[in-house]
Write a structure and sequence with these properties.
3-stranded parallel sheet; 8-stranded mixed sheet; 211 residues; binds uracil; alpha/beta; binds 1-O-pyrophosphono-5-O-phosphono-alpha-D-ribofuranose; 6 helices
């Protein structure tokens, strides 16, 4: 069953399709998984930044005055530990001035409920466009909790970046945060009884760090 969600953008890029196949393959070793997720994060960063608003400014080339462009907004990247770390470097490559606030959330293996354990969020968060990074949107509990936390701390503008999303997670997240746009590289079929995404790629944190 294919579903559409008004606040979801499915990024269509041949590089993402090719690299996702590597992530999904159970025979892909951890170092290749890590390198591939980083490349995916770079492609996604380029795609997502494509239409970010710009301000113009005047400056001089060695030959004459001209007009340049800079992002209107300042950014906060919020990787959700641990798997969100796999998206951090790709986004930092293109948004090197971004503040990085890690958010520690771990899903209980039995109940599948998210448990918060760490955050470090700056006080000027209300001035920043916050980009939540978490490759897996399964039940949506973790991304929803991370986004709620950022809003409680004052965040006004947020974007969620996932790599593989389940319809159940998109629905849950959208019900709680209809104002937050989601970008993903794949909208998969469904969750299994253990709340893993099908076809998915398994446990992203474990595959990233070899645990
Ligand atoms: C994974 C993943 C997401 C979460 C998604 O984290 O990185 O944060 O599960 O599932 P949900 O949408 O059902 O909440 P996990 O709790 O396994 O922690 P880890 O990244 O440290 O392995
Ligand atoms: N977390 C993961 O890492 N993978 C899933 O499929 C679901 C939650």
């Amino acid at each position: 069953m294919s579903q559409t969600f008004p606040n979801l953008t499915l990024l269509e890029n041949a590089l993402l399709k090719r690299d996702l196949s590597t992530l999904r393959n159970k025979h892909t070793p951890n170092p290749i998984f890590r390198a591939t997720l980083e490349r995916i994060s770079e492609v996604m960063a380029v795609e997502i930044c494509r239409n970010f608003p710009l301000d113009s400014f005047d400056y001089e080339t060695p030959l004459e005055a001209t007009t340049g462009y800079k992002f209107q907004e300042s950014f906060l990247l919020a990787p959700v530990l641990r798997a969100g770390l796999g998206l951090q470097n790709g986004f930092l490559k293109f948004l090197p001035e971004a503040t990085v606030s890690h958010i520690g959330i771990s899903r209980d293996h039995r109940t599948h409920e998210p448990h918060f354990y760490y955050s470090n969020i700056p006080t000027h968060i209300e001035t920043l466009h916050c980009i939540v990074l978490d490759p897996m949107l399964a039940t949506g509990g973790s991304a929803t909790m991370a986004t709620s936390l950022l809003k409680e701390k004052g965040a006004k503008k947020l974007t969620l970046v996932s790599v593989v999303a389940a319809p159940e997670g998109v629905k849950y997240f959208s019900e709680h945060h209809p104002d937050v746009h989601i970008f993903t590289a794949a909208l998969d079929r469904e969750l299994n009884a253990n709340k893993y995404i099908l076809p998915g790629l398994g446990d992203a944190g474990d595959r990233l760090f070899g645990t």
